[in-house]
Amino acid sequence: MTTRTLRTVEDLAAHGIVSDSNLPELTQVAARYAVAITPAMASLIEPDDGPMRRQFVPTAAEVIQTREERADPIGDDAHSPVEGIVHRYPDRVLLKANHACAVYCRFCFRREMVGPDGIRPLSAAQLDAAMAYIAGRPEIWEVIITGGDPLILSPRRLRDLGQRLAAIAHVRIVRFHTRVPAVDPENITGELVAALKSSGKTTWVGLHANHPDELTPAAAAACARIVDAGIPMVSQTVLLKGVNDNPATLEALMRRFVELRIKPYYLHHPDLAPGTGHFRTTFEAGQALMRDLNGRVSGLCQPTYILDIPGGHGKAPVGPCYLGPEGVTDPKGRTHRYPPA
To answer: DSSP class of residue 151?
Structure first.
């Protein structure tokens, strides 16, 4: 088992994750899209095709780009008034504090922007401009700190961000979106958790996980350190072919979130990122999964199935509709008149 993050295809070959014979084609993929697999995730990768391998190990399919795919699939750039800020909705902004991650997911919608060869971290002057933008717009109620993954930053840097947001009275909510509690759980230290609360605002953490196997005992302990500190958590999941596009896996994942005191929040339809066609499912398949989930598990376990509309037009729920001209459909697919005759 590796004790360090694997960052090259040669690292993957040396640890038996990929074959030496695949190195030439995988080197082409790695030249365009960053590779990083933490020890926690490397230990879960299956010898054959499986959910962990599909999420984290590069494949030649990533160089196949379809006509509809785009480098900026959800339109971040169109709504970026200053570097590091995305302001798509009136009451909230994204603050992209850095552009590196603990792991690099093979389906990432920001895959052209993250990693060592992606967009550079914000300079001091750029961060000043981003904070000035937030301070100058009283309609901004929530700041969502993302990237990249903000929880790879040091507690000192997280505290600095928090203290700067603390000085902006109209910001009431600070939300961090991350994969770190699952993929690098030892990084969730007491010092880091304290730094998350340093703004004095109401703090939330959104955890991205796509398969129940990611939520190991170590991940559960990391999440407990966050929740026990009074920070509520929500989940984000991407619907991925060969990873979680079946009822049993999706049910197990949502139940596991709730057991860990994480409220299921969004199930994302895959974005049109370059080289990710092998992950995409159909809306019909996603809606069928949501119908099945609705009939099988508690309301606590129900995420909202959404599409982030290409071009920066925002998120739209795309789950099944249960109300039609003939009445209301129940979880078993039977239609009932409403009001009853």
So the answer is: G
Residues facing 178 on adjacent strands: 207
End-to-end Cα separation, the chain, in angstroms = 65
Polymer length of the chain = 341
Distance CA 194, CA 162 (A): 10
pLDDT of 93 higher than 80: yes
Instruction: Please tell me the distance from the alpha carbon of residue 203 to that of residue 236, in angstroms, as a whole number.
Output: 17
Contacts of 31 (CB under 8 A, 6+ apart): none
Q: Cα(177)–Cα(206) distance, rounded to whole angstroms?
A: 5
pLDDT, tens digit (0-9, with 9 covering 90-100), for 184-196: 999 999 999 999 9
Distance CA 11, CA 3 (A): 12
Q: Mean pLDDT over residues 172-182, rounded? A: 98
Q: Which residues are tagged catalytic?
A: 88-89, 92, 101, 105, 108, 110, 271, 308, 315
What percent of the chain has a predicted confidence (pLDDT) above 70? Answer: 100
Closest by Cα among 212, 221, 104, 87 to 143: 87
Whether the model clears a pTM of 0.90, i.e. scores above it, the answer is yes
Beta-sheet strand order (sheet of 327-329): 323-324, 327-329, 335-336
- Flag the least confident range among 74-78, 132-136, 179-183, 224-228: 74-78
| CA–CA distance, 236 with 226 (Å, rounded to integer) | 16
Rounded Cα distance between 129 and 134, Å, is 9
**To which H or E segment does residue 219 belong?**
helix 217-228
